[in-house]
TrEMBL record:
Keywords: ATP-binding, Kinase, Nucleotide biosynthesis, Nucleotide-binding, Transferase. InterPro entries: P-loop_NTPase, Thymidylate_kin-like_dom, Thymidylate_kin_CS, Thymidylate_kinase. Residues 150-169 are annotated as: Disordered. This is Thymidylate kinase. It comes from Rhodococcoides corynebacterioides. Phosphorylation of dTMP to form dTDP in both de novo and salvage pathways of dTTP synthesis. Pfam families: Thymidylate_kin. One of its GO terms (molecular function) is dTMP kinase activity.
């Protein structure tokens, strides 16, 4: 059975860059790793509806915090069979966003903390009712919101197809989401968390080879206690 690891952080934190570097580090060490990104835009009707809503379509759908959370949750639920199959075939399944993303953004939208009702509602929805596999570890890319915003804006300028959505353009929401993420990591929500300096995630300062090894060592201990 493989190890499920999720990378979390606000938009522009550098999740894609770090996930790619970690995957390459594991492959270089002979570890069979595969990467999956959520939401699955272009593959999942639920993810596409959420993206369209955040772009201003479908009336007031985007205004409903629970409604949007359900769409993102159903996107992941549609991938459960694939995730379980990957966990049987690969040593590591690395996720670019997972359930904590839904918990953090939803809680931030209703101005709640990591220990609020919204986080618990998302946990019960995705892990209890939709029976998503629990991660063995989660990585938080801790990055100043202004740095993440600058990256997201630059990405939009370079590639018009990656225009920022309503969440990404809301600086206040991004700041509140970062605070919820910090609370989730501090409480070891659903698994052990590793906090990485997101401002350096795309630079040479992050020892990705060491991080990759530490993740496998500590998740092996955690899995041994929980399975």
């Amino acid at each position: 059975m493989g190890t499920l690891i999720a990378i979390e952080g606000v938009d522009g934190a550098g999740k894609f860059t770090l996930s790619s570097r970690l995957t390459h580090a594991w492959e270089a060490a002979g570890v069979d790793a595969v990467r999956v990104g959520f939401p699955r835009y272009g593959e999942s009707i639920h993810a596409d509806l959420a993206a369209e809503a955040l772009a201003g379509e479908h009336g007031d759908l985007a205004a409903g915090v629970n409604s949007m959370a359900v769409l993102f949750a159903l996107d992941r639920a549609g991938a459960v069979s694939d995730l379980r199959r990957m966990l049987h075939r690969h040593d590591v399944v690395l996720l670019d966003r997972y359930v904590a993303s839904n918990a953090a953004y939803s809680a931030a939208r209703v101005h709640q903390d990591a220990d609020g009702e919204m986080v618990e509602w998302v946990r019960a929805l995705e892990f209890d009712r939709l029976v998503l596999p629990r991660p063995s570890a989660q990585i938080l890319l801790d990055v100043p919101v202004e740095v993440a915003e600058r990256r997201a804006r630059g990405r939009e300028e370079e590639d018009p197809s990656r225009a920022r959505d309503a969440y990404e353009r809301d600086g206040g929401l991004q700041a509140r989401t970062a605070a919820v993420y910090a609370g989730l990591a501090a409480s070891s929500w659903m698994s052990p968390w590793f906090v990485v300096n997101g401002a350096q995630a795309d630079g040479e300062q992050v020892d990705v080879t060491r991080l990759a090894a530490e993740l496998l060592n500590q998740t092996a201990e955690y899995d041994g206690m929980t399975r």
